[in-house]
């Protein structure tokens, strides 16, 4: 299969082959170790899904772990801020980045082992997430199908603890390997060390900006059961002639297959969400807020049709898209930044918008939702 992301890397680098020169002291320091290939004034438009036209002071393409170690230890970048970019699907770049951008393009995937209960599948951090999910199904390994068509890379998945349609990445996570940028040392982290939460992890808290995730190992259970309880997914499966909820058989006595769920998720997401290649966006921009039961009861009395999901701890998750839509923001624009007309959770770049404009739009939405409902919306992407 062609790798369009890798093609973009090479095309742009041929156009901007500006190697950063070494001073005499840098040359002496680098003489005993490998030196990274650095590119100055590197354009990042093709490396963020919003398509913001910004640049990196320096950039380094990471296709092998040795290149990452060379970049971390290169004396020319000592003391510079560092930014790790994979697919750029979870970041809002509000301006040029004054530092080193590490463009993670590590590739590879394999089944590393199996036991009585599960297969363990490893993928490199730069693998496109959706392609990896499709590959697991092609190998006859179900378990990730609900997470189809989520933009980004495998290495970004644990950072965000991506989730969709009743499944979170952490439920299939086994371990990961990462390089600590300050030392160049490799670490292996299990789920407990990653401290996964709702669209959250150690890497968005204390570990933010400290690591490059080079590979992730997933545990895919052999005793697989479909998860298809979400209304949109159930309707799509019913249209395909499959059961609409997990564990229930259709009229022919058959459960939906993992491939059927994958296909249904892809169809639903394509119907609701814009393609970043056609309309710049980062997918869902806001997390679904979780509130206390007492606050929900008061809100329910005022807004009987509020969309909500009870949580195991007694709290209630609200549909952020419903809150935003209720405030009248769906389809509304501020300059070239806009709320998508079919999905209020998605902010889009209609062409030429800056990261600052998208951020201003997001903040205006947050103020309105807080004023109308008393609920704070938290953004999913990192704003830089």
Automatic annotation (TrEMBL):
Its EC number is 1.3.1.98. This is UDP-N-acetylenolpyruvoylglucosamine reductase. One of its GO terms (biological process) is cell wall organization. Keywords: Cell cycle, Cell division, Cell shape, Cell wall biogenesis/degradation, Cytoplasm, FAD, Flavoprotein, NADP, Oxidoreductase, Peptidoglycan synthesis. GO terms for molecular function: FAD binding; UDP-N-acetylmuramate dehydrogenase activity. It is found in: Cytoplasm. GO terms for cellular component: cytosol. The active site is at 199, 284 (proton donor), 380. It catalyses: UDP-N-acetyl-alpha-D-muramate + NADP(+) = UDP-N-acetyl-3-O-(1-carboxyvinyl)-alpha-D-glucosamine + NADPH + H(+). HAMAP family: MurB (MF_00037). Residues 52-223 form the FAD-binding PCMH-type domain. Pathway: Cell wall biogenesis; peptidoglycan biosynthesis. InterPro entries: FAD-bd_PCMH, FAD-bd_PCMH-like_sf, FAD-bd_PCMH_sub1, FAD-bd_PCMH_sub2, MurB, MurB_C, MurB_C_sf, Oxid_FAD_bind_N. Cell wall formation. The keyword Hydrolase does not apply. The gene is murB. It comes from Paraburkholderia susongensis. Its cofactor is FAD. The keyword Cell wall biogenesis/degradation applies. Belongs to the MurB family. It is an enzyme of class 1 (oxidoreductase).
